[in-house]
Structures are given as C-alpha cells and as structure tokens.
C-alpha cells in the first residue's frame, strides 16, 4: 500500500508542483523586469505606447 501511495505522489504531485512553481517564478520575473524597464526608461516616448 505504501508503494502505491509513493507512485501516485511521484507521478502526479511532483510534476504539478514543478509546473506551478515555474508559473509563479515566471510571473514574478516578468513583473520585476517590467518595473525595471519602466524605471530605466522613464520619460521615454515609447512608454506611452499601449501594451
């Protein structure tokens, strides 16, 4: 019984955890890079272009 639970854990939960962690890391990195770009290029007319 313990082996079956371990297999379910490895097959289902670990890949889902890795994908969710990657999604969160991508969102945080994207926001940090966006804020950095706005700060570095403050006053540029290119920032007025809508996303």
How many distinct helices? 1
Task: Return the structural class.
Answer: mainly alpha
State the distance separating the first and last CA atoms. Answer: 53 Å
What is the N-to-C order of secondary-structure elements (H for helix, E for strand)?
A: H
Number of DSSP strand runs? 0
Level of helix content?
A: over 70%
Radius of gyration: 20 Å
Low-confidence stretches: none
Beta-strand share of residues: under 5%
Q: Which shape, going by the Cα principal axes?
A: rod-shaped
Give the mean pLDDT: 90
**Biggest pleated-sheet summary:** none
Chain-wise SSE layout:
Layout (H helix, E strand, L loop, with lengths): L1 H39 L11
Short description:
The chain is mainly alpha-helical and 51 residues long. Helices cover 76% and strands 0% of the residues.
Characterization of this structure:
The chain is mostly helical. It has 1 helix and no strands. The protein has one helix at residues 2-40. The mean pLDDT is 90.
Features:
mainly alpha, rod-shaped, 1 helix, single chain, 51 residues
């Amino acid at each position: 019984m313990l082996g079956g639970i371990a297999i379910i854990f490895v097959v289902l939960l670990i890949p889902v955890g890795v994908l969710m962690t990657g999604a969160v890391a991508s969102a945080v990195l994207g926001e940090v890079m966006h804020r950095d770009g706005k700060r570095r290029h403050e006053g540029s007319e290119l920032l007025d272009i809508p996303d």
